[in-house]
Each structure stands twice: as C-alpha cells, then as structure tokens.
Amino acid sequence: MTQPPQFNITTTPDTTILSLSGRLDARGIAEIWHQACIAVGRANSAALAINLEGVDYLDMAGAAFISHLKTLAKKPLSATPVKVLGLKPEYAPLLRLAEKTDMNADFKAPSPPLALL
Predict the structure, then answer these.
(1) What is residue 14's DSSP assignment?
(2) Three-state SS across the chain?
(3) What gap in Å lies between CA 32 and CA 102, rounded to an integer?
(4) Three-state DSSP class for 61?
(5) What are phi and psi of 19, to 5 degrees?
(6) What would the pLDDT profile of 96-107 be if each residue is shown by its tens digit?
(7) Closest by Cα among 88, 26, 94 to 51
(8) Which residues, in sequence order, are CB contacts of 65 under 8 Å at separation 6+?
C-alpha cells in the first residue's frame, strides 16, 4: 500500500534537497503543493536537488507538480540549477511529457462571436 505524500527539506550552502516520498497523484499532491512551492521559493542554495527515491507512485498530476517545482527554481531572478534524483525509469516518460507541456502559459480566452447584423 502506498503512503500519502510527504516532503522534507535539507539545506546546505551549496544545495537544497527537496525529498519527496509516497504517492504523488492529484489527490495527494494537493496536500503538499503550497508548502513545497514555498520551500523551493525560499531556497537560498546555489542548486536544488529534487530527490524522488521515496516516491512509490507517480501520475501525470505528480509529474506536473515536479515540473512546476523545477520551473519555480529556474525563475529569472534565481536561475537555480535543478537536478532530479532517484526517478524510477517507469516514471521518466511522464516527467518528460509534463516538462514539454507549458502549464504556466497565459490562458487566452477565445474571441467573442461577432454579433449578427
């Protein structure tokens, strides 16, 4: 049986390590999304490592979460290098797909239909 998601932060002057564990799915990540994003945003180390060795399940929502954390660390003001450690080979395609999908793109609503004259 899989465990609910958890995260732990370890910080050194050189690297901040965000260790994720448990089940990273849509329901589970909702519980840790905000706190993990804040932790990544506050990281002052020269590099960020996302350790996934303890992850026992990952779906597309979990992959999007990891991709989002990487994006936060690479914002122009910080440009922190990010390494993903311990990703199980069966989850690699999901993470690659999530990284190709621009989830931070500005949403543009379709133009309203022209009124008939």
Answers:
(1) S
(2) CCCCCEEEEEECCCEEEEEEEEEECHHHHHHHHHHHHHHHHHCCCCEEEEEEEEEEEECHHHHHHHHHHHHHHCCCCCCCCEEEECCCHHHHHHHHHHHHCCCCCCCCCCCCCCCCC
(3) 21
(4) helix
(5) -95, 120
(6) 999 888 655 544
(7) 88
(8) 24, 29, 33, 36
Q: Return the residue matching tokens 């350790």.
A: 51
Alpha-carbon distance 8 to 1, whole Å? 21
pTM (2 decimals)? 0.80
pLDDT in tens, 39-77: 888 887 888 899 999 999 999 999 999 999 988 887 655
Domains of the chain, by residue range, sit at 6-100
6-100: what CATH class?
Answer: alpha beta
CB atoms within 10 A of CB 16: 23
- Which residues neighbour 117 within 8 Å (Cβ) at sequence distance 6 or greater? none
